[in-house]
Design brief:
This protein is α+β, with helices and mostly antiparallel strands. It has one domain: Deoxyribonuclease I, Chain A (4-Layer Sandwich). The protein is 18% helix and 30% strand. Strands 4-5-6-7-11-8 form a six-stranded mixed beta sheet, covered by helices on one side. It has a three-stranded antiparallel beta sheet with strand order 1-3-2, with no helix packed on it. The protein starts with 12 loop residues before the first strand and ends with a helix.
Length: 169
């Protein structure tokens, strides 16, 4: 049975490594056509309008209602120094977005006890320092795997938000 995000009452979903982003009003990605590494998609029917604000390598910023969504992806095959440079670029892109409510969602391939991983790796430590420095909070709760594969799973997908989110729900 094929399920759709509207059936789960999901307002938006982030797709890591979509490889192709359809040229449709309910999709925005960090690249055109087959060059995308991350995309945001909203339901076609009944969803809020989605509009692209900006993009960069491995991220896309989109406006959904009053919220700015930032879809992120960083490959697990790249070294820590490139991850840290990526976080710096992402931070600069976010600098002009306040005071709008912001959510950062996606797959950064970083493990940290702060978002449910059993251990913290160097990427997780770098990401935790970065998000605290920007005043973001981890929305993830519990220790359920966010990435599930045949050989097991891990908690590497993360949702971060500016402080408004605690009062929104």
């Amino acid at each position: 049975m094929i399920q759709h995000i509207a059936e789960w009452e999901v307002a938006a979903a982030v797709v890591a490594e979509p490889y192709y982003v359809p040229q449709q009003a309910n999709w925005v990605g960090d690249g055109a056509g087959t060059l995308a590494s991350v995309a945001i998609v909203v339901p076609v029917m009944g969803g809020l309008p989605l509009s692209r604000v900006s993009t960069g390598s491995g991220y896309v910023v989109a406006k959904l209602g009053d919220i700015l969504l930032i879809g992120v992806y960083f490959s697990p095959n790249r070294p820590l120094h490139e991850f840290e440079a990526y976080l710096e670029r992402l931070g600069r892109a976010m600098a002009g977005l306040a005071p709008s409510p912001i959510m950062v969602l996606g797959d950064l391939n970083a493990k940290c006890a702060a978002w449910g991983s059993p251990r913290t790796d160097p990427r997780g430590a770098a990401l935790l320092d970065w998000l605290v420095g920007l005043g973001l909070e981890v929305v993830n709760r519990g220790t359920a795997n966010t990435c599930v594969r045949l050989g097991g799973g891990s908690v590497i997908d993360i949702t971060l938000a500016s402080r408004w989110w605690q009062h929104a729900w």
